Amino acid sequence: MRRWPATIRVFLHHEMLCVGCPIAIFHTVADTCDAHDIDRKRFEDDLSDAIRDDDNAAAQPFAGSEYS
Predict the structure, then answer these.
(1) In angstroms, rounded to a whole number, what is the distance separating the alpha carbons of residues 38 and 36?
(2) pLDDT for 9-53, tens place per residue?
(3) For residue 58, what is the enclosing H or E element?
(4) How many CB atoms sit inside 10 A of residue 55's CB?
(5) Cα 18 to Cα 12: distance, rounded to the nearest angstrom
(6) What is the pTM assigned to this prediction?
(7) I need a labelling partner for 13 at 20 to 30 A (CA). Which of 34, 37, 44, 60 fits?
(8) What angle do CA 10, 44, 48 make, to 5 degrees?
(9) How far apart are CA 18 and CA 8, in angstroms?
(10) In Å, how far are 20, 60, 64 from 55, measured between CA atoms?
(11) Cβ atoms 46, 14 nearer than 8 A
(12) CB within 8 A of 14, min separation 6: which ones?
């Protein structure tokens, strides 16, 4: 969320409480989807769309990320 702020809206859209959660940093996307009973593929697609559209994504590539 720090690297791609546009992803925050994806978490909120899926009614996840990860924004501001003190343990969010320890969870993977898979952990989060499992905990919230969210379709992982759909969520990852939504994250990818947000990252692609985020103006910061091109300026701050994240090496080794499936979303870079």
Answers:
(1) 5
(2) 999 999 998 888 999 889 999 999 999 999 999 999 999 999 988
(3) helix 55-59
(4) 9
(5) 8
(6) 0.73
(7) 60
(8) 75
(9) 9
(10) 22, 9, 19
(11) yes
(12) 36, 38, 43, 46
